[in-house]
TrEMBL record:
Its cofactor is a divalent metal cation. Pfam families: RraA-like. It comes from Aquamicrobium ahrensii. The lineage of its organism: Bacteria, Pseudomonadati, Pseudomonadota, Alphaproteobacteria, Hyphomicrobiales. This is Putative 4-hydroxy-4-methyl-2-oxoglutarate aldolase. PANTHER family: 4-HYDROXY-4-METHYL-2-OXOGLUTARATE ALDOLASE 3-RELATED. Coiled coil: none annotated. CDD domains: RraA_family (cd16841).
């Protein structure tokens, strides 16, 4: 194992104990920009997601332009992004919030899982939803659709920054998701965010112990939440 892999493992391990809501609070406390995905993207398979982003951007076809006109070299970009996955990868597919056609399915999941990918996040739709947990993938999406996306979308972004459900996502950003939603963690602030999250968890435990001792919620909030 290389030193860079060890470093990445340490970063992932630092975030593993935390809920997405705690990370959101930590980023707010640090004055960082809100990077939570819109709640329209919801958990459809699995329980918790933590990994590094690999990104795809897709654009609806128009009456006078298809894949060749929009980005001729990107006809197999989704396959290339998936084939480049490694352990801990999270595929992020941005569709401008259009969920009428699926942009993810069983064959993609099959390949991604063999390469060590841990999940998918999309502001669009997927199909073959019942297969996802069998591949060990945690999936967040706006919904499902039986319609195939290749007849509706062109791929225009391949592992470059995308906007997914209102959040800016770059390749290698840390993606953390659970039943509360998905948040994007900028790696350059990861250490500060993890430290602040641990501090907030500690405060919450003290606050709950204070209430367990008979204090009111009002008193607990005044003691621990008001600064």
């Amino acid at each position: 194992m290389t030193s860079s892999t060890q470093s990445d493992d340490a970063v992932m391990n630092a975030f593993a104990p935390f809920q997405a809501a705690t990370i959101s609070d930590a980023m707010f406390s640090l004055g960082l920009r809100d990077s939570a995905l819109d709640p329209s993207v919801r958990l459809l398979a699995g329980r918790q997601l933590l990994g590094r982003a690999r990104t795809v951007g897709r654009t609806p076809l128009t009456g006078n332009a298809g894949q060749a006109e929009m980005a001729g070299d990107y006809g197999f970009a989704i396959q290339q992004v998936i084939d480049g996955c490694k352990s801990g990868s999270v595929i992020v597919i941005a569709t401008q919030g259009i969920a009428s056609h699926a942009n993810w399915g069983g064959n993609m999941a099959h390949r991604a899982s063999h390469l060590g990918a841990v999940g998918l996040v999309t502001d669009g739709a997927l199909r073959d939803a019942d297969e996802m947990e069998g591949y060990g993938l945690t999936v967040f999406a706006q919904g499902t659709s039986v319609r195939a996306g290749q007849h509706r979308f062109a791929t225009t972004v391949r592992n470059e920054p995308v906007i997914c459900a209102g959040a800016y996502v770059r390749p290698d950003d840390i993606i953390l998701g659970d039943r509360d939603g998905v948040i994007v963690i900028p790696p350059e602030h990861a250490n500060d965010i993890a430290r602040k999250a641990a501090e907030l968890v500690g405060i919450e435990k003290e606050m709950q112990a204070f209430m367990d001792g008979g204090a009111s919620l009002y008193d607990a909030v005044m003691k621990y939440k008001v600064r």
